[in-house]
Specification:
The chain is mainly α. It is about 45% helix and about 0% strand.
Length: about 100
């Protein structure tokens, strides 16, 4: 992974990078917030977005499914938890109990 990058630096990269090699590394991050931020990056290509849309974490896959480059649509049959729909930026997100409804 990006061992020399702090968590905040990884989030910043995920949100803004245009480098596809970095994006592929971030795609495999164990951190949900990093993958979610990558799902919001307007520069993320369809190959990566289409992998994120099948992420097992709904907070990642739902955001990826709304990306303009997503071509592998996913249906969400269950009612989505408010945390999945939350628009709080990843660097300030604290997912313990969603108080925004």
């Amino acid at each position: 992974m990006l061992d020399n990058e702090s968590y905040r630096e990884q989030l910043e990269l995920a949100r803004n990078t245009t480098n596809q090699n970095i994006m592929y590394k971030l795609l495999h991050s164990p951190l949900m917030r990093v993958r979610r931020a990558l799902s919001k990056n307007p520069n993320t290509p369809k190959e990566i977005i289409n992998k994120l849309v099948i992420d097992p974490v709904l907070n990642v896959s739902y955001v990826a499914s709304t990306h303009h480059n997503c071509t592998n649509k996913r249906e969400f049959k269950e009612e989505l938890n408010p945390c999945v729909l939350c628009s709080v930026p990843e660097h300030t997100l604290y997912c313990h109990t969603c108080e925004r409804k």
